[in-house]
Design goal:
mainly alpha, 434 Repressor (Amino-terminal Domain), globular
Length: 82
């Protein structure tokens, strides 16, 4: 597996985890990024790369630091009861 392919898969998995923790649909993510649900699905499966500007928008949407998407950062999250 190429290094970039591995990065896309890791990044896609992080995006999926953040989306599920925040209970946000692929449709909503797509609206925020100007993409279709299918494109978001492709990102989450590592089939499509993500531009830096898209990562920045996702960090704001998920309320996580931009660095959280780094392949060297472990995904950590807390579920907070409200």
């Amino acid at each position: 597996m190429k290094r970039l392919d591995k990065f896309d898969k890791q990044l896609g998995e992080k995006i999926r985890i953040f989306r599920m923790v925040k209970n946000i649909s692929q449709e909503v993510i797509g609206l925020c990024l100007g993409m279709s649900k299918q494109q978001i699905s492709n990102i989450e499966r590592g089939k499509r790369g993500v531009r830096v500007v898209e990562i920045f928008k996702l960090s704001e949407l998920f309320d996580v630091p931009f660095e959280a998407f780094s392949p060297n950062k472990e995904v950590k999250y807390q579920m907070v009861d409200k």
